[in-house]
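Supplementary Methods S3. Input chains for the assembly prediction are listed below.
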Amino acid sequence: MTPSLVSKYLGEREGQRPSPLSDRTQSGSKPLLELDALSVAIHGQPILRNLDLTIAPGEIVALTGESGSGKSMTALAAMGLLPHGAEMSGALRLDGRDHGQLSERRLCAIRGREIGMIFQEPMTALNPVQRIGQQVAETILVHRAMPRAAARARAAEVLARVGLPPDRVPPSRYPHELSGGQRQRVVIAMAIALRPKLLIADEPTTALDVTTQAQILALLRDLVREEGMALMMITHDLAVVAEMADRIAVMKSGEIVEQGETARLFAEMRHPYTRQLFEASRHRADLPAPRPDGPLLRVEAVTRHYPGPRAGLFRPGPPHVAVNGVSFEVARGERVGLVGESGCGKSTLARTILGLEPVQAGAITLDGAPVYRHGKPDRAVRRRVQVVFQDPYGSFNPRHRVGRLIAEPFHLLDDPPRGPERADAVARALIDVGLKPEHAEQHIHAFSGGQRQRIAIARALIIRPELVIFDEAVSALDVRVRAQILDLIADLSRQYGLTYLFISHDLSVVRGITDRVLVMRNGEIVEAGATETVFDTPAHGYTKSLLAAAPSLPQPPGGGHADDREPDAR
Amino acid sequence: MLAYALKRLLILAISLAIASLVIFLVVEVAPGDPASFMLGINARPDTVAALRAELGLDLPVHERYLAWVSGMVQGDFGTSYTYRAPVAQMVAERVQVSLPLALYALLLSTLIAFPAGIFAAARRGRAGDMAVMGATQLGVAVPNFWFAMLLVLLFALKLRWFSAGGFPGWEEPLQGLKALTLPAVALALPQAAILARVMRSALIDILHEDFIRTARAKGLSRRQALWRHGVRNALIPVLTIIGLQFSFLLAGAIIIEQVFFLPGLGRLIFQAITQRDLIVVESVVMLLVFAVIVVTFLTDLAYAAVDPRLRHRR
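Predicted structure tokens for the full assembly:
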């Protein structure tokens, strides 16, 4: 960092800062942020209740809990950005000033200057029509902290600090020219451009791949250490919390149910909810022993490429190879995981297996019959494969009742059941996934995320497929719901002897639900083997780096199951 | 960016070629003889034959098409049968009225719509928004000729600020502009109402985007976030509508031209159709198609200027 710019324009605030590294814990130092019996209600509906929390300079405090627990609302309250109709009571003090008493004007002066915020979705957090340097400089300019030229220089400097040096990623780039991880770095640069005292990060790595996540977390940790900022980190991921936070506050339904220093909190886990979250996070489904019974799915040297961007007006560019010479087999009754980072080609592979896309080379057969024939999926094969997608809401037509939604795959049958027979099938499918037959009469919006995913599974199962593909099927769910869905998937496998292809970027999920795992990178399978073997003794460097990057939970108090994950080598 | 522009230009050229072919085929090759159509049922066979020769209808189709196209490229649009005057000259006279009128109306409509739409979006759900929405609802519902009549009643007959109709030509530009003012306002009001609604809804959508929240977290006020991050992002749908409106204004002003006695393109084509002057119809239609395609091209360039993501898509 050029000392000139910082000392010239921001230096006067340096003195107020405690020296970094000296005050790692809150003991003795005055809290920077103080929530004192903070409650928030929106249109009379209580959202946050009686929160007491302090964050000291140089401290990382994590707020964790499931969706709807009030984590993000707490962050918005700290920013003074509560939605319309919100009423705040109690006190929220930054440096002793109560935000509830400040005018909107004063809050604008504080946001960005004293508090910086990082958001969950880097893909949409940046203005698509402005250059990144300009967006970072805006933080400085809107607070009139520096003249324009200095602000530009400072923007370039901050971008370099977060890992976007001008020679590789110039500030003149637009957001769409950057990857998700790079965009998140830009968001961080905007948040720290004026060296705020408090940084709030709301699920900053949830949308990112595990290796990118590790880099961003390391960056945040360094910033806190070097600049002496306080970090309020909001995340549902207990493993991330365990690695990052000095202290943890566990939230449930708008209340902090337990808080304390990270090591002690994990060691004690006084509140049952904390324990439930912890157990659910390390949940392994109870899979029945695999009884592989001859190959069912056979993928042979499959290559799928898309036309690349044109090199000239009439010159086609080099094709983008999404799947490159992939071969594997899945035996009947086997549960196979497919892991890899976003863009590695795993979803493309899934679509080709479903017969939704042609392949340029190789063959995909189910029980010897090709899934794709004469330019379309083969119906006879297609009815034996079903899929469950990530977003259980987006994959349902909101205007149809659940009964009709579940019965959709019947169109694959030549002689679909009708009348009472059909109603019976729907009812059975609902019971299979732990719902009630009368749910068939309701619309999809009446269900929670977990129930929707159960409905998606019911829809996949209704025509009794042999192979079910789960494409990030539990990624959007809260940990406790996720554990239940994984149990359900294991139960169904036991009951119907189903074969699974389980696609996910989440290594811990794949570990808990599969017998065998394939690791995919850049369209190729780099490692394959029995799940436990691959996770315990990875052979390929890429698998090793994936596993090393994944944050891990601490050992449970009083020992645990025999198969507990080893704490990483790090 | 250059590749993007070149590709749009190529699309423009292809569209023009296809359009000319379609218009030619519909008018000249469709069943029925143009000459006897133009002369009516009671025409004498020798008159028809004479006209056929004059129009060159005895030549093979492809030669006629090429002659028509190459003529147009050189500015020769043929000769009007009814007026016995070069079509190019007639069209040029009318364009002098229609093009400024369309541009004038578009300018007014944009000047009204942008502030109104932005104002309403910024005050969503409040009194100001409801007032703008009510006014635009009225603007969309009421036909422009009715506005035109009201404007004439008030500004021409009662206040006598403007004349009630006619066009004095461009010898005195201010007088010309003045004569076009009432028609332009009458044309602009319904367009402005539509544009304001599009602006408002596009902006409201944008205001829910994550990057507006990011801007607020940087310390921008609500108003700053709206102006610096909202408006430019809302422009894409607005530009689409502006492009469509210009094409409409150029040729669609028939009724307004009638109300104000303006010698515009709309009236020309209307008269040509009633007099079965196919040569004029054909040429004016081709000209309008050309205008629409050029406007589309310009709109595409404007998109790319607004949104950097499009510049890289070829």
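Chain A has two domains: 3-16+24-281, 294-307+316-384+466-474+498-550. Residues 294-307+316-384+466-474+498-550 of chain A form a domain with the Rossmann fold fold (CATH 3.40.50.300).
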